[in-house]
Every structure is written in structure tokens, then in C-alpha cells.
Amino acid sequence: MQRLTIAIAGCGPAGLATALLLHRDGHHVTLFDRFDAPRPVGSGLMIQPTGFAVLRELGLDDPLLAHGARIDRLHGEAGSTGRVVLDVRYSALGKRAGFGVGVHRAALFALLHDAVAAEAIAVETGCAVIGSELSAGDRRTLLLDGGRRIGPFDLIVDALGTRTPLAPPCGRALAYGALWGTLDWPDESGFDPAALEQRYRRASVMVGVLPVGRFPGGQRRQAALFWSLRADRLEAWQAAGIDAWKKDVAALWPAMQPLLDQIRSADQLTFARYAHRTLAEPAEAGMIHIGDAWHSASPQLGQGANMALLDAWALAQALRQAPDVATALARAVAMRRRHVRLYQSLTALFTPVYQSDSRLLPFFRDRIVGPLSMLWPATRIQAAMVSGLIGNPLRPLSLAGT
To answer: Does residue 185 come out as left (phi exceeding 0), alpha (psi in the -120 to 50 range) or beta?
Structure first.
């Protein structure tokens, strides 16, 4: 395909990765971000073997491992009973076994943004996108707050996330969100530095610790702490005060105390709201929606950033293979649609088991499903699900696994 003029709205992992891939293929790429300086939003996340495969193609696998924390298993227990209800090990996949990488969003952002800067890809800041306009020849113009218009472009890539103004609203907000905080890793606490560990009180309370490696330029290892909370209970949580919450956390999981001792103010925690949405038509004339702008869900299966990276890779592959933009966009969506539908369905199915007001679901989880899940072949199925490899998404994208 001839060299295209492409606008990418959003400087998150999806937008930055897409910019690198398309720039390296010879297209003229400009990134647009609403902040005066692009910056990450959020705390820790998991890069799974699927996302890792894309980062390896970008040459960022070694830097990721240098800054992140290798995760070999996920472990969850019911309250203070010690009853194991989640035990997922990547090694259960045998020869396909990979690993996860716990990383702070700031570290992942820095790796991608530094690569974008090193290749002199244009980044326009202070650009709050409010819409787009189709013009002749299926080209599109970006509409910015304040009446500014930029374009037209051969292609606009929407990587603005769940609340994107470039797509019609759809889906629903989820009842449960989570409080997130990033703290120094407690060396003497007994936490496994190669595991995501969680404790549950029924399905209404979940607390977890994820190793996330080091900040760029930092030496101290970090941990991401998260606590599930219904969005409509946030004000009550704030009114009760941080000390009451810390007491509740310590009662559920006493080993958390070294982390809790680092929290002196509620300002150290950020509340994340989640939504489940899937655009019926993620591509239209001159524009494609990727990542959370196309599909977003609860982070229960930890696939958000990984799905976005796969979307970016699929778009680059399709533009290499197709004779025109319209054909490329249709091909990119076709390459990803089955995997997206599968994980949207799996996430919708499993989220209530760990985040809901149900009493029946956690009862079966703790006493029946949990013990059975530690037997073969459930061990292998769980590992494939968490790694993002169910549905074999790498093959149609010509990506090599670990």
C-alpha cells in the first residue's frame, strides 16, 4: 500500500504501539493527546504472553523484563481460612508455557513513549478530540475542542479508550471498580515476588498484591495493591476514613500490614471504574477503533492492554497486505473479532464469581469449583485463559509465541 497519512488519537499503550508499527512500515503518523505532556493513567497491569509477543516484535521485550516483574502464577485464598480457590500456573501449558509480567503503567508508557521519541514520530499535545468528520475519498478530519480541525487523514486510529468521543456510546458501567495504589515492595512480608496474590471475602471484597518491578530510573521494587469496591460505596468509604479501611484490610489479610503502613492518606489510592462494552462495528470509512475504544471489560482476566496490543499488530498486518484502506480495516477486524468476542464472553462469565454481591457464586467457587480447578485438565484450561491464549490468537496474526 502507498504511504498513508495517519492520525492516532490517544497516547496510551494501544496508540503508542500502533504509532511505532505504522511508522516503521513507512506511513506518515501523528499522535494526538489531550494532555500538555503525554502521561500514563493508572497503576499496575499484567502483560501476558499475547501482549509480550507484540512487544518482542517492537524490540521492547528485554526492556520490559528489566523494568517489570516476571509472574509465574496466580494464587487466591478465601479470607483467613487458607482455603485455596485460585491456583493458576503458567507451567501447566507445558511447551507453550510462558509467563506474565507485572509492570506499572508508567514503566510501560515510558518504554513505548521513549521508542516513539527516538524515532521522531510527531506527537501533538493539548489536543482534546471531540469527534471526526468524513470528507471526500473516505478521508477524515479530527475535530478538536475549541473549534479546531486537523486533517484530512487517510486513516484515523481511535485509541482513546472506553469513553472515546469518536464512537457511539454502548455497553454498561460495571457495579464494581477498584482502589489502586503503588507502594514499595515489602521484602520481609512473605509475599511471593513471582505471583499475583489475592484474598477474597465472598465476591464482594477482593484484595490483591501484584509485583510490578521498578519505575524507570528507580532502584526500589514496587507492588500494586488493589481493593475491589462498589462504585456507589465510594463516598461511604471516603467518609469512613483511611484508618477504618486499613483495619478492614488487615483483618482480611494480616500480611498486608507492611504495605498498609506506607499508606497515610486516601490520596495515595486511585479509584478505577470499569465498563463492559463492545462496538458492533469497530471500523468505518477512514477510521478504526482499537483497544478499549472497541472492547472493554472488567480486568478480572487481565487482558486489557494485551488485547489492545494485538489490535495494533492486526492493523499493521492488514495495512501491509491489503490494496486499500477499506479492505485493510475489514481485514484487521476479521483477524481480531473471534478472539475479542471470546474474551468478552469469558470475562462477563467469570467476573461475577469474584466481583459481585452474590453469596451463592462464591460458595460454589470456594467449596466446589476451587478444588476441582486444581485438577487436570482444569489447570491447563485456566493457564490458557489467563495467558490470553485460548482461541489461539497469535496464529492468524503470524505472531510467534514464547
So the answer is: beta
